[in-house]
Amino acid sequence: MYALVLGEDPYFANNGIGLPNGTRRTIDNWQYTREAGREVFTKVHLVSYEQNYDHTPRNKWWRAERVEVTGYNGNRAEGEEIIKHSRNVNGVQFAFKYRFLHPSISTGPLGFNTTATRLWQKYSGLAEVSHYSDLISRSCDNGTEHEIVYVNETLSEETTPQYDGCAMAGLKLKSSDNFNQLDQLRTYLKNGIEVERLIDGDVASSNLLTDLLWYLVTNKDTGAGNILNSALVDKALLTTTGRYLEANKLYWDDVIAEPVNLRSWLSEQAPSVLCFVSLKNGRMSLEPALPYDSNYKIDASNPVTISAMFTEGNIIEDSLEFTWLELEERKMFQAAIIYQQSRVNQFPEQKTLIAYFGSDNSDLPIEEFTFNHITSDEHAAKVARYFLSLRKNLTHTITFKTLPWGLNLEAGKFIRVASEMSPYRPDNNGIIQDDGTIVAINALADGAYNVYYWERQTTAVSEGVLHVKNGKATELFNSVFSLKESAGSVSEIYQIEALDIDQDGIVTIKASNYAVNSNGVSQLAIDVLDTAGAITIEGDIGE
Hints:
mainly beta, six-stranded mixed beta sheet
């Protein structure tokens, strides 16, 4: 009827294309004239909508949004009802019942009225209508069957919403208006939030930890941009480290779901991408923990670059201190890396990789490391080898003071230190039992060794020679010993961890020992790449 009176059909308009859903029109001459002298003149505001019915291919219709009274004759009481009749193109007459409300706008025809663009369960009440009257019972005869907990409303947007600063995901349900249960929603997001990509110089999704760090220190909505000054972060160094991460496929694929302490969080994440947190000239950054070549790939072929050498000649007297790791912290272990492997539109699969030196792991304890942001076997294997190599080769740190003249050092650079201060190493200590059995970390081959030793019945440490035959000591029973180093100074390579300068201009350097092979090549890099197969990897790698 509305299409007939209006002269425009939403289904046939536009040469059969139809009108877009939500198109609005007004019938200006919708009148009630059955009672002479008591006519009612109204405007009907219509909106087009789409609805499919089994009996007709037609799927576009008009619906009255509201009825506006423009005038009437005679007296009308509040709440008085009127019935207007109108025929469709087939001559079938329909009745429209209205209730008269003052002053000029009614709620529309009695029945179901809405301004929404979608209807939810419009005819749900019809399910309780029966031709058998009281001959059958229904579940709602003795009380309400359902409780309204909340109401959904779907409205058209005047303008398209913008979701800046969000990783977007959409859920579309097509099967039915009814959705009984949605216990836990899991989504696969191929791309995360868009950030400034330091290498490419654009804004897009990234899986490099350096890009995420720069976003966190600059973004004022979800990052710490309102608290931190971006000038306190070395952007150029982050870009270099990003190239190192990209070249070695060390990616960070995860989310930060809860607020974190940025510095602590970064220190926890850095080793899992073979990096360390540095602080240079008051500026924080993330740096590669391993040497790399001109293509930013881990370099296990060239010797590390030594930036300076320190001896008794340029170390301030009595300032050199050695701090050895406890033996408990140096026990070898099996590294179990727990990580995830994702496939497009599938649930992530948790995987475990176990690595250890040599081929016999029967006596080694397992230490687990969980990294949800690691999503490749190659990345997990590199991290496992890195942790094992650190445990094997990192033995001590040193601290000493020197003058600043001619120094061109910073955290991460390598130095050589030659000193006679430390005459023994903790890993060369041992105990000789009363039967000559030697208890030590490293087994001693047969021969003679210069040692410092202490016998339980004495109060002083003595020097002597320990003879080993068939794996047992021939003297110094019931004593504690330490092997003496060879004559002359001991020279080792160290990596600088921190530099401080005091008010007197004296520089304090803290560094950790850095293992290299006979050619000066980083032992950490050699172990991480492990081209010789010195580290055994177990797990479903590549499956």
